[in-house]
Amino acid sequence: MSIVELCNIVKTKLITEAVRNTFGDMCENIFDFSFESISGKNPKTNHKELNRYFYTVYLLKLVEEGAQGTKILNTLRESQILLEILEDKIQALALLYDDILQNEILVCEKLEDLLEWVEISNSLKVYSETQLALSVAYNKFITLSHEEISNLSTSPLGKGYIDLLINIKKGLNYQIPLQQLAILTIRNSFNFIEQMNFFDYCGINIEKNPEQDWKIIEIIEDIMGTNNQDPNQQEIEYDFLNENLLQIKTSLESVLPYAEYKSKNGVFEGKNIDSYDTEIDFIIPFEDIIIEKRKTYSNPTNSFQVSIYKGRLKNDRNGVEINKTVGIKMYQEKKPRTDFTKISDEIIIYKRLSDLRKRPENCFTEYYGTCKNIENGKTTYYMIMEYQKKNLLKFLSENIELNDQVLFTMFKQLIRSFEQMHSLNIYHLDIKPANILIDQNFNMSIIDFDMAIMIKGNKTNASDKSERRAGTKGYADPKIQALIDGKNDIQPYSNAAADVFSLGMTFYHILVKNDFDGKLNTIERNDELLNKVKNLKQTWARDLLLDMLNKDENLRLSFKDLMGKFKCDSTKNYSDKNY
């Protein structure tokens, strides 16, 4: 779609009386307004005509003025609502987004930022198979990675190798052909581990960090497990790397046994989903599932193709016809006998929480069952659950005003739900608005447990600690955010306290809606965040969030303690008002 075509759409189809009343002179000649001034006119409303006009003009100015950097990420994501509003222009819009993303990628200077643009581009593949931005991203990724490799060769840091490997892993997940880069980085990582642990530096004491080295090895194993490599070109190289990997793991065992490293996390472990068949009941026959063609989400990983669909379930578990609309999460293995440990954990969590589901007491998702289908020697698992059209993130973008009674009820239900989860030693570790579904009656359902962990046995202070990367930028615990930003070495954090903080950031987003600043969840800006909380108009919510958002995890209340401050269904300690 050209600028001329887009201008014509704006002038002939999008200017209504409501648009003129809201945007005034901008309707006469949008070229008289700068990109910055237009950005400031975001109506932040659920009004279809206003959103259609604003986001179309926004895209037009982006095409005209060129790359703007990561400051436009949130609005660019929000603008994808046009793909629903202008259904007859989907192909053209997808190509327009592709042009914008190419411009942003070309000037990008950080791998982390580059992957943000790739994420958007990858999400558009369901609308158009022609995504040139991904090709541009490949060249940019190679350039930035080689710069990072050069820096690491002169200033080797374990955290640097971890970040680079994680970014390569994400790039591979987005189908960027980075196999040769992965091989080079893996070799350099092996050299780094050997130099830090096994070389004699003539009496110089080199500080070892075997926990960090094991983390590097885990990421390498994940990358090498991918099924993306071209066997004709890279099979020999991967075989060699596997031999080298085995030697390094054997040597590192003498420094820190792997079992001791893993025991610090105390994560529920397993080998394959077959070992969980006593707890997982594959009660849904494949022929009872009807899957719509268009995916609502798709993310290829090293081992699986993960997709989410809207679908229909013909019969319930008793064989009674229900013909019910459902959500279907599909894990399709890329090679036979893949390790399904994390998937089995996710299924078990959904099932356990569904058994506790009680409206309006909690926000657990109704889980209908699991289907297991084997075709051409490969297994696909389908998780069948309740369907909601909208998640909380999309709901917030509509800028709907909620009174204190509704807000209080929502907050209390979510806190109670996570209190129940923690009592079962289940930790979500990726709480955010996108992972909470909501209907027209404000009933909520917590979803997406692929980052969640279950702690074995009785929880102790030691086993509540994690060092793994989890969560989402903008909502994650400050310690985790520091890892995401590459500012600190890995520091243990409390799983429980991390969930409290992320739910606190979610509450803050609910309260400020489109004014949400996704960079406040850092250690450095925690005082600024707390000051903004103190200025919220909802007095009761101020006190609640102050108990949840302290950068010091020891000063945050647990979900149990937070619930203790709610006196009953109609009153609360967090306010002198009654509802």
UniProtKB/TrEMBL annotation:
Pfam hit, one: Pkinase
Family annotation (SMART domains): S_TKc
GO molecular function: ATP binding; protein serine/threonine kinase activity
Record-annotated membrane-spanning stretches: none
GO biological process, one term: mitotic DNA damage checkpoint signaling
InterPro entries in UniProt: Kinase-like_dom_sf, Prot_kinase_dom, Ser/Thr_kinase_AS
Protein kinase domain sequence ranges: 302-579
GO cellular component: cytoplasm; nucleus
Designated name of the protein: Protein kinase domain-containing protein
